Amino acid sequence: MSVPWGPGSASRAPPPPPPPCAGCSLMCRRYYWAEASARHNDLPWQLLLKFNNELRQKDANLTSLTGTHTNIPKLKAGFVGGQFWSAYTPCNTQNKDAVKRTMEQIDVIHRMCQMYPETFLCVTSSQGIRQAFREGKVASLIGVEGGHSIDSSLGVLRALYHLGMRYLTLTHSCNTPWADNWLVDTGDHDAQSGGLSDDFGKSVVREMNRLGVIIDLAHVSVATMKAALNQSQAPVIFSHSSAFALCEHRRNVPDDVLQLVKQTGSLVMVNFYNDYVACKREANLSQVADHLDHIKKVAGAGAVGFGGDFDGVTRLPVGLEDVSKYPNLVAELLRRQWTEAEVRGALADNLLRVFEAVEQASNHARDPEETPIEQNYLDSSCRTSYGYSAAPGLHLQPAALLASLTPLLLGPRLL
């Protein structure tokens, strides 16, 4: 039986077969050639924490890097053909240096490709992923993990697109002024937008559709999930979320949302973090496969993928301890009678289908979204207000307008 090892692989020689594994059928061993593609990986964050992004430090060498879930030998052992490297900066950078920090993380991803050109190929399109497969390299894409990274600016959104960003997670674990995060559903945060704000939040979604940036709903509230799924003109992804029905953690996707995923041709890429898999500190590979089975059952085989979250979490299931272990999950799915086409879908084809649909829905000839967020929605403690005072309507609510005029009305001697 012929088993492909990646989309568009006709011109590429297959890698040598992996060593036999206990209990694996011949089909399982041959299927390890299938490339695992384009999942969420936080290695750039670890490079910041450990080395301040100084990649030429001896211990930062990705061929011998220790203390991480990801390095080049582990990627090769896991037959990983693509990654969405996360350009992540924490929520405590919001209204401070989030944009700067995000750009630095994008920069370190580009430098990974420059330093290890024999291993990584930075790409920005579905065709680029296929090219990397043909060249035997890891297709390296950029995902920005958190809407706070655009600092409520459509101009920053567009600039990050031009720097290579191809998905944006609408929130991390904090609200933005235009979208609510998952902690709203736990009661730990107050809802601010009721999902997506009617003005700026929906404008962000429209602009992402226009540009061809994949909308990522990992980390958002259920109301935000539903609003974005209903608003977007292209399929969306959950880059690293699991099934709420199996683990009632609010980072996971409930079944009614999975129905919307099915209707919109969207994708849920299963997170491997123990707390989202088993709702406790310990988990195993079989439980991850249960999540894949459940999403497949509710939303269809085309709606499921591998999310990973390696190097972004501290507890991983037995059997999925690092990126070299992906073949174990492939073997488990084949043991559960998943077809070759279904496994190929979870590995790469489903994500490629969504990416291609996002590209097809994009329209750079259409006028960009221009209306800025209203100034009163922003934390103004570290901001200037250039443009707002001259713009029609001032973009200020009465209370904010009064506050801005008070110094002029009272004069400096009375303040």
Automatic annotation (TrEMBL):
- Domain of life of the native organism: Eukaryota
> Carries keyword Hydrolase?
yes
Where does it reside?
A: Apical cell membrane; Membrane
List its EC numbers: 3.4.13.19
What cofactor does this chain's UniProt record say it requires? Zn(2+)
Zinc keyword on record: yes
The reaction(s) annotated as catalysed by this protein in its Swiss-Prot or TrEMBL entry are: L-cystine-bis-glycine + 2 H2O = L-cystine + 2 glycine; an L-aminoacyl-L-amino acid + H2O = 2 an L-alpha-amino acid; glycyldehydrophenylalanine + H2O = 2,3-didehydrophenylalanine + glycine; a beta-lactam + H2O = a substituted beta-amino acid
Q: Taking the first listed entry, what is the main subcellular location of this protein, grouped into a coarse class?
A: membrane
Sorted alphabetically, the keyword list is: Cell membrane, Dipeptidase, Disulfide bond, Glycoprotein, GPI-anchor, Hydrolase, Lipid metabolism, Lipoprotein, Membrane, Metal-binding, Metalloprotease, Protease, Signal, Zinc
A GO term from the CC aspect: apical plasma membrane
Q: Supply the PROSITE patterns for this chain.
A: RENAL_DIPEPTIDASE_1, RENAL_DIPEPTIDASE_2
A GO term for molecular function: beta-lactamase activity
Membrane topology qualifier: Lipid-anchor; GPI-anchor
| UniProt family annotation | Belongs to the metallo-dependent hydrolases superfamily. Peptidase M19 family.
Name of protein: Dipeptidase
